[in-house]
Write a structure and sequence with these properties.
The protein has a domain of 115 residues: Rossmann fold (3-Layer(aba) Sandwich). By secondary structure, the chain is an alpha/beta fold.
């Protein structure tokens, strides 16, 4: 949880509306000039990631990189204790993902080794604790990911898990029920 005085990622400093206007215009000017081959490749990549094209394009445009992985909270996977199986709809979605790292973040009392036993997970890490500071959350996530954090999207269930994305400067956050919904991507 963020401490007293934290702005939850909002920028209220002077010039924010101008920067937003310029960024929005630049994105709008860029989109019509993309060659059709690039658009087709990105549509295909969005499908490999299980994302709608619009969501994928927005994430890619916001950080300038392709996604290489997802960080799934154990809550998002619906695995809350050792031996519990992931629901079939979530397991099916995990298996259809192509060319992407699937990292699970084990929240207490679950341990990474217990989460790693699940099919569909490439790696498992220790999730930040509720009592961690913003910088501790950042360090916990960044030190355990197999690649730069800005190339991963968090898929989670709670506002606390959304904070992981913000604290570690990750590519974005997706609500688990929307990501795993039938027909998504």
């Amino acid at each position: 949880m963020a401490g007293i005085g934290h702005n939850s990622g909002r920028v209220d400093e002077p010039g924010q509306s101008w920067r937003k206007h310029v960024w929005t215009k630049a994105r709008k000017d860029l989109l019509p000039t993309l060659p059709i081959e690039i658009v087709r490749r990105r549509v295909k990549r969005a499908a490999e990631l299980g994302l709608p094209y619009r969501t994928y394009a927005g994430i890619r445009a916001s950080n300038g990189h392709d996604l290489i992985g997802f960080l799934f909270s154990s809550n998002a996977l619906r695995v809350l204790r050792a031996g519990q199986k992931m629901p079939q709809d979530r397991a099916d979605k995990m298996h259809m993902l192509r060319d992407v790292r699937r990292v699970g973040a084990a929240q207490s009392p679950l341990r990474p080794a217990q989460l790693a036993l699940m099919s569909g997970i490439d790696d498992a890490i220790i999730a930040p604790r509720f009592t961690d500071s913003w910088s501790a959350m950042r360090e916990t996530i960044r030190s355990q990911l197999p690649a730069p954090a800005d190339r991963f999207v968090v898929v989670g269930d709670t506002a606390f898990e959304r904070e992981w994305s913000e604290a570690a400067a990750m590519a974005g956050y997706l609500v688990a029920d929307e990501y795993f919904a039938p027909g998504m991507g």
